[in-house]
Amino acid sequence: MVSHINTVSKAMDPVHRHADTLKDPQKLLIGGGIIVSLVLFIYLAITQSIMQPVLMVLGLLLGYTLFHARFGFTSAFRRLMSVGNGEAIRAHMVMLGTATVLFAPILALGISFFGAEVTGYVSPIGVSLIVGAFIFGIGMQLGGGCASGTLYSIGGGRSVMFITLIFFIIGTTIGAAHLPFWTEDLPSMGTFSLATSTNLGYGGALVVSLLIFGLIAFISKVVEKKRNAPKVAPLPSARGWKRIFRGSWPLMVAAVALAVLNALTLMTRGEPWGITSAFALWGSKVAEFIGFDVASWGYWQGEAATALNSSIFADSTTVLNFGVILGAFIASAAGGLFKFTKITKGNVMASVIGGLLMGYGARLAFGCNIGAYFGGIASFSLHGYIWGIVAIGGTFLALYLRPLFGLSVPKSNDSVC
To answer: Which residues contact 58 (CB under 8 A, 6 or more apart)?
Structure first.
């Protein structure tokens, strides 16, 4: 299956079929995106705490960065497993390294902009994590994107991702209903933090983390050389300061930007960047509206009940998600790339199954590629590393499932998340 990967044309990619050359900015769309963003910002400033409009701006910057760099998690795992290309994985290590350097003092000292208690994402290690991460790994390869990829692809106009998002929400909601079984009735080792579960402290945990990232980057280089992996085809970009608005950004620049924005998110709301808890909230509100007794679910007990009974605009993750979509929309329009793409029977079925698997897996695994992998590792939690390893295992299996849905064979120059 993998032997003819390099013969697959980049033109088969439904997202970047129209991105081979720079196009004129879509000024009307840019204006519309800015107006919607301003209206939402003002609404949040009037009706919510000052933290919410700040988070919306951070979400805009996250979405803008993700789209401009086509910063991938799904594609990074796929390229590594299919052809041995580790360029994006090394960008992940730069992102994680920068994030841990920033997170260490923030978590150690409790640095916060608005007085919120600062906590990282440190989650239990057990059957729930392993099963959830594995099926998430399969789901993101079938659904065409991870959690962040789903949001920024929607912002870029990739039509099938709307289907992925709908079933992502459904899967997450079902996962929320089932979560007590997975976390309370099945084996779990509890949480483990390199910083607080050992004598290392945040300083020692930072050193160990950076050594791990360096080792992974080195191994990816060795694998590339051994497999003679082809390079990723560069995307077109403007020169000089215009590159901020048009064309692709270097992966390493985006890696640092995402880490800085995640650290700012941590200091703003007291938690790192997350995505899928909002999906569970949206889906649960819809389920409650149509008659399900959502309030009785174990997932919505205690402090979580407040979110269920409040406006979605009071939920910080929801605000971040809206910002990511709008930021990606503005970025795509600035590059002249916003365009609804073709939907086929094959990619619809893959999106339905992939969305359900990602949603259910995200709840079981205490997060997605952002909350569990990025946020978990940056918070020095062992569960983040395990999530990444197991999700790569799911990716490997998914390489053999993609052709069943008429999806292209993974290729080295695929730059979609």
So the answer is: 261, 264, 265, 268, 320, 323
